[in-house]
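BACKBONE STRUCTURE TOKENS:
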Amino acid sequence: DALPICYYGAIQMSTTNGSLKLFPLTDATASTTDFNAITTNKNWIGARYYEMVPVIVNGKQPYWLFLGWKGNNQKTTKKIIEVLSFEKGEPVFGKNIFETEKKSPLKNRVVFEYNKLNAMTLTVDSKVNMIVFDHLAPYDAKMTGNYEYYAGDASFDGYKLVWGKLSLIEDVELKNDPSPNDDFYGKPVKASTVITKIN
């Protein structure tokens, strides 16, 4: 098995006296056994973040949602929805806000794992005002829980902010914006019709 991918980073903050405060991020993925644990910058579950969303609920202390790619091993890759907040001026990763199943305990973050040869959409869609992602499923029901056989099944789910928590919404209908190139992908036209138009 390949060595785990290790990430590096830092959080830089301004202070009231104008100096900068730096929090180095130490990737502790290799020693992490509970991916639902609340962590700090000293035992961060590292990822390459590509999208960030600030969240303010009822004027409370804001937090940030990060969407990231994690990589994993030779068979699977992972993506993550992470939460960053600050308590007493210190960074905290993870927050008890994800409703992944109805009437189940809330989770602190969401980690997706799937076959490395596949791609997975995980993005913020402003048109539906939620985080949307490919619904991952095994190729065969017998492979449930064996993530090297998981891939998108052509449907989409999402997380929507509802009463301070991110609730799972299944089967989200997503549509692309109209494009001037849409006519090229319309209903097929008989060759004789095209030739007649040219003449």
Remarks:
- The chain has a mean pLDDT of 89.
- The first helix runs from residue 191 to 198.
